Amino acid sequence: MNVLFLTHSFPRREGDAAGSFILRLAVALRGEDVKVHVVAPAAAGVPASEEMEGVTVDRFRYAPRRYEKLAYTGNMASDVASSWKAKFALVGFLGADFVQAVRARRSFEPQAVHAHWWFPSGVVGTWLGGLSHVPLVTTLHGTDVRLARSVGVAKPLFGHVLKHSAAVTTVSSWLKDEAQELAPEINPMIAPMPVSTDLFFPGASRDGQRLLFVGRLVPQKGLEHLLHALAAMKKQASLDVVGDGPNRAALEGLSRELGIGTRVRWHGQLPQSGLPQLYQRAAAVVVPSADGGLGLVAVEALLCETPVVAFDSGGLRDVIQHDRTGLLVPPGDRAALARTLDDLLSRDGAGSDLGKAGRLYALSAFAPESAARRYAEIYRQVLGARPS
């Protein structure tokens, strides 16, 4: 079976974190006799066509190079909302994405199209499906559902894409509920994205006073809550921050204002190969985000047997079972977060039992083979349901 992937985020080089779970799914699907071809936006220094781990990737140009800033930043929606240049670039993006998808359909002859995120890929997928009568599978990852809630014109377009999809999947049960609230007539299937079980595994030793945060430095990821909690903790723990984003300077300033500047190390964005050793050394990974689609950082930590402390919010509830695979804290409660971290670091074994149970769960639920089996089944169901 041939399946065409449409996505606005995909690794630009080996080890790139952008959309890496989509590449993992594409590679794992080979074990289910599914061949994947990917259409993704261009990026500076990246070939127009290449093979990554045996997966063919075609990349489309959508504006003069200096204006090609919509993809790979994590700020597409906000940029389009605030800039006329970005709005014009978006028009070019949608058109170029569609043209490249049509070319790929002709050369690759897919039996199904799989759009990752309803916008922009799902929109393009409906156009392609209308032209070629190839069934569309649309996966919601979280940020796209927030877009449908926050932008007035987006909600009817969201409903249009889901209505014209032969199947809709979400990466968590929370996200399924969110999607159904916006489009009650749709019944999404829960199908998480995979995490690399080969890359993330337990290490030999841990620093019992070292905490770790991994994520974009934007308000939704909640790092400011963790900084306040770190300042309020009784234990003098240190914190590694991996990631970058528009809030970095403000967050660095906040750490100094709170008197913990010397205890926070800012690593910036790291390739995925640089993450396992940080997970393995940390006493705990903290995920203080709100309304996230799933929380793959928490899964990566559990695969390394690292205890996770997270806000009881969004798709994290599918990953963390309180006091079994990690610890959950009321969203935004900085005092409770500080107390929970103090308690975890004071435990005998520093929560090693949580990490071990978490790894077993993560292997069963998020291994690439499990995700590939689930999506191959969905593709076959969609093809079997088509009228002859």
What does this entry look like structurally?
- The protein is an alpha/beta fold and 388 residues long.
- The chain folds into two domains: 2-194 and 367-385, 3-Layer(aba) Sandwich (Rossmann fold); 210-366, Glycogen Phosphorylase B (Rossmann fold), CATH 3.40.50.
- It contains 15 helices and 14 strands.
- The chain has helices at residues 20-28, 76-82, 84-108, 118-132, 143-150, 154-163, 173-182, 223-232, 248-257, 276-281, 296-303, 316-319, 334-346, 352-366, 368-385; strands spanning 2-6, 35-41, 49-52, 55-60, 112-116, 136-140, 167-170, 189-190, 210-214, 238-242, 264-268, 284-287, 308-311, 327-329.
- The strands form two sheets. It has an eight-stranded mixed sheet with strand order 3-4-2-1-5-6-7-8, sandwiched between helices.
- The chain starts with a strand and ends with a helix.
> Strand order within the widest sheet?
3-4-2-1-5-6-7-8
Oligomeric organization of the protein chains: single chain
Query: What share of residues is helical?
Result: 40-55%
Q: CATH architecture of the largest domain, please?
A: 3-Layer(aba) Sandwich
Poorly predicted runs of 5 or more residues = none
Shape: globular
Largest sheet: 8 strands, mixed
Tally of helical segments: 15
The CATH homologous superfamily of the largest domain is called: Glycogen Phosphorylase B
